[in-house]
Amino acid sequence: MAGLFRKQGRFDEALVYYEKALVIIKEKLCDSHPAVARGISNLASVLLLQNRYSEALGHFEDALLIRNAAVGEDLHPGVASTFNNIAIACSLQGDYEKALKCFHKALSIKKRIFGDRHPETSNLLHSIAEVHCLQGEFEEALMHHEKALSITKETLGNRDPEVAVALGKIAKVCAIQGRSEEALASYEASLTIAREAVGDRDVLSVAKTLENIAAIHYSRNRYKEALHFYEEALSIRKEVSGGRNVLVADTLNNIAIVFYAQQRYKEAMEYLEAALSIEEEVWGDRHAKVANTLDNIAAVHEQQGSFEVAMETFEKSLSIKRETLGDHHPDVAESLDKIAAISTDHGNFEKALECLQESLSHQREAPRCDGHLALAATLSKIAVVYNAQGCLEEASNFCEEALASIHDARGASQGSTLDTLGVLYASQGRFERALDCFQRALTLNKKYLGNHAGVANTLYHLGVLHLDHGDSKTALSYLRDAERMQLELLGPNDPELGLTQNSLDACQKGKSCYQILMDRLFGI
């Protein structure tokens, strides 16, 4: 029963049955029996699904002690599995160093049991790659994914479904780096194998890959192609799992996001309301998935000019996230950020600061998994609000604190935060400070993202900064680099490209772009 409840997402009921089973096992055997370790691990796995990471970790560590005492540390698959579970819990908490240590320990045991070239080792290599990806170490991630792919091809054959899975993982990392065409090629190869393996109208692996392909097209502003692949994925999911399934709701949400990007707000709202109906039917109206869809609905209301409805919907989403995830969860911080952003846009700076200060307080009480980066991002957003109020001293203080926090951070979002700080310093006329932030952002974005729109964004900012400082030659070089990259990555109709081309025109005519840069401050 516990396993069935877990599959159905009825986690509280699953816990009750797992706890009852554990009591019976302890009564019939003893506290140090391997079956007790299995029971504790079952409990912990449900706690993970409830985002109760610390409790889950404690249980997994208890299970490890029992397994080590019962069967020894080095040559038992159960010990390796427990190290794997501990690593997952650590990763979810943001303790990537410990996660990698435990994954490598599990890998070492599996290699001794199964050998270096075995499917068990390839699975762990993928897990190690994913932790590197979370740390922004994309080349390291690709190396481990590709090693795993090599093992999978060698042990299972080139056309096995697991090869499709591995290709999808490689594609995901390439997509994060902005290597869209490489990502697309890997996803298409994955799709071909998945169709061969399971048939054209199966199942969820095919539908998921179709969605990934759609996401690549979406990222390149190829909305027609994105909709085509999302609609095909939706058709498969409806056929396989019925029309009232949460996977169907996920795809409806994705289609709505494409319509939103096309400013087709009425159609976006129709799909979002359909998704919300399914999620409320399956999960109830107080579930985190429902909150995410409400966020999307709020964004549509905002674009349609319904500010009060948008704010009310964002607030409802925040209430659900607080209730289901707890005040310190990153999704709660995300909702606070959204409310702060819409409040800033409408001049309600007091409300914006209230939300951002709450988010900051939670991060300081219980540091998030992305640590210094999340703190720096929130500090920079507070600085933006103070800057908009004309409180330049307060804005500068938060800028400096954000910079200090970034100094100890690592990861792909460093560049984005530095970009924001650069625009803030530029708005205050602090050229050298702004230049330093933009140059550091450019270096980090190139390192972590490669050929990516984030790099083009920083190039654009550097161009505008130099233009307003009277150095049109340097400005022209940066703006042309930004234009080339945006044309390649985003296509000729992207609004970001339009801004760059307007700035190029101003540069060639000797005009200032100061106001363009300032107008972008709140949209970064």
Automatic annotation (TrEMBL):
Entries under InterPro entries matching the protein: TPR-like_helical_dom_sf (IPR011990), TPR_rpt (IPR019734)
Tagged with keyword Repeat: yes
TPR repeat start and end residues: 80-113, 122-155, 207-240, 249-282, 291-324, 415-448
Pfam families per UniProt: TPR_10, TPR_12
UniProt xrefs under PROSITE patterns: TPR, TPR_REGION
Keywords, alphabetical: Repeat, TPR repeat
Secretion signal, residue range per the UniProt entry: none
PANTHER family on file: NEPHROCYSTIN-3 (PTHR45641:SF19), TETRATRICOPEPTIDE REPEAT PROTEIN (AFU_ORTHOLOGUE AFUA_6G03870) (PTHR45641)
Record-given protein name: Kinesin light chain 3
Source organism of the structure: Hondaea fermentalgiana
